Amino acid sequence: MNIILFGPPGAGKGTQSKYLVKKLNGIQISTGDMLRDEIKKNSEIGNKIINDMNDGKFVSDEVVNSLIKDVISNPKNKDRLIFDGYPRSLNQAKNLDLLLKDTNQKIDFIFFLNVNKDIIVKRIEKRKILEKRLDDDSDTILKRYDTYMETTKPTLEFYSKNSNFHEIDGSLEISQITSKIEAFLNV
Ligand code: AMP
């Protein structure tokens, strides 16, 4: 089963995807984590993206698309993909479609965790204290939310037409969101 978790920063995509990975023996594909790893490794990609990431801007489609290619085409990961934070643009969504077609796969479920700006700001302020992420300061949070809303709108429209698209109230408790997801998955 391949699943996309879609939603603004702080919507709970990471938390739910970690749970689903355990439950379904899946592979979490968090482009945010992959990009942070590149920065930690001080790689060529890391040096290219560090400023954009710290400013709350999106990293180019080209970089993100190249990062996920190998994970998707690895036969060991077939039909176990849990996407967390990818795709975030129409270009990425179309790229994903092609990669899945090439590997005889499809997306089975898309869950849109919808949360308003006030809740997100409060949640990310808390995460900043726990995880010390450089892009979690108040100004950057607001910028990331606005970037998300502007850039992902066409992607949301692209997916929301599908019958496997489900919107879930992301302001609910973690366990309530999990139950809703499980009800759709029938697990
Ligand atoms: P996240 O951990 O998903 O909140 O992502 C943190 C940051 O990584 C974002 O604010 C972007 O700068 C970058 N990022 C993560 N995933 C993507 C993506 N699919 N496309 C572009 N930028 C991304």
Number of domains: 1
Strand order of the largest sheet: 2-3-1-4-5
In the CATH hierarchy, what is the architecture at level 2? 3-Layer(aba) Sandwich
The name CATH uses for the topology is Rossmann fold
Total of DSSP H or I helical runs spanning 4+ residues = 8
Low-confidence stretches: none
How many beta strands in the DSSP annotation? Answer: 5
Shape: globular
First-to-last CA distance:
12 Å
Mean pLDDT, as a whole number? 93
Bound molecules: adenosine monophosphate
Structural class: alpha/beta
Largest sheet: 5 strands, parallel
Percentage of residues in DSSP E strands:
5-15%
* Elements, N to C (H/E): EHEHHHEHEHHEH
Helical residue percent? 55-70%
Cα-based radius of gyration, to the nearest Å: 16 Å
The first-level CATH class name: Alpha Beta
Any idea what the CATH superfamily is called?
Answer: P-loop containing nucleotide triphosphate hydrolases
What's the helix and strand layout?
Elements: E1 3-6, H1 13-24, E2 27-30, H2 31-41, H3 44-54, H4 61-73, E3 81-84, H5 90-102, E4 109-114, H6 117-131, H7 138-160, E5 165-169, H8 174-185
Parallel strand pairs: 1-3, 1-4, 2-3, 4-5
Helix pairs in contact: 2-3, 4-5, 6-7
The structure holds adenosine monophosphate.
Explain what you see.
The structure is a single chain. Helices cover 59% and strands 12% of the residues. By secondary structure, it is an alpha/beta fold. The protein has a single domain (3-182), classed as Rossmann fold (3-Layer(aba) Sandwich), CATH 3.40.50. It has a 5-stranded parallel beta sheet, with helices on both faces. Helix 4 packs parallel to helix 5. It is globular and about 40 Å long. The termini are close together. It binds adenosine monophosphate. Adenosine monophosphate binds at residues 9, 31-32, 35, 52-53, 56-59, 64, 85-86, 88, 92, 135, 144.
